[in-house]
Amino acid sequence: xxxxxxxxxxxxxxxxxxxxxxxxxxxxxxxxxxxxxxxxxxxxxxxxxxxxxxxxxxxxxxxxxxxxxxxxxxxxxxxxxxxxxxxxxxxxxxxxxxxxxxxxxxxxxxxxxxxxxxxxxxxxxxxxxxxxxxxxxxxxxxxxxxxxxxxxxxxxxxxxxxxxxxxxxxxxxxxxxxxxxxxxxxxxxxxxx
Length: 193
Ligand SMILES: CCCCCCCCCC(=O)SCCNC(=O)CCNC(=O)[C@H](O)C(C)(C)COP(=O)(O)OP(=O)(O)OC[C@H]1O[C@@H](n2cnc3c(N)ncnc32)[C@H](O)[C@@H]1OP(=O)(O)O
What we know:
Layout lengths: L49 E4 L4 E7 L5 E3 L2 E2 L1 H13 L2 H4 L3 E10 L8 E12 L2 E10 L6 E11 L3 H6 L2 H8 L2 H11 L3
Antiparallel strand pairs: 1-2, 2-6, 3-4, 5-8, 6-7, 7-8
The protein binds decanoyl-CoA (MFK).
């Protein structure tokens, strides 16, 4: 399986650099936003995915497929699995200390994923070219060394915090800016030199 041209790092792309203040390997990263569909603890409809910092510029995460995530009887919906990959890839931002959003995401579905399965995900940054972050992720069935069920290649694009202020619905932006925990999480990314 080969990523499309848009997901192939251009000549001259740099090796990713782990930020000196990145969370230590093994550290639980916690949600970047409590209402996030992927990781938010206060999001009743969410995946409640929990990610940890890995070595280098990598993360691991776990996501257990619930009955609410079905597409076919007893099997996870493909879009939900893509969301889990997207969130895991997004968590790489904590290692770079850069705010990023998904620009492009290509998913391969290799095996069906039954309800109640815990998907063990891992993601790493492959290369960086200016604002463009090239990364890859996989989700394995039942164990960190289990068979690969889904994988993805992605291009994330660095943005400033204004991106969310400019585009987000006012009600949620005002609530986030009034929440000291949320402001602290956003600031953690702004110290990037
Ligand atoms: C707090 C940190 C943790 C965050 C975790 C989040 C986890 C979940 C992640 C998500 O789901 S984020 C939500 C889904 N994504 C979005 O809503 C992004 C919507 N798209 C945009 O806002 C803009 O299109 C984007 C910021 C991605 C880019 O717009 P810009 O005007 O800033 O930049 P531009 O269009 O010039 O693109 C910058 C470079 O990226 C390239 N690019 C952008 N989109 C691309 C694409 N889709 N495919 C290929 N290349 C792309 C583009 O060609 C260009 O390359 P060059 O610098 O070489 O010219």
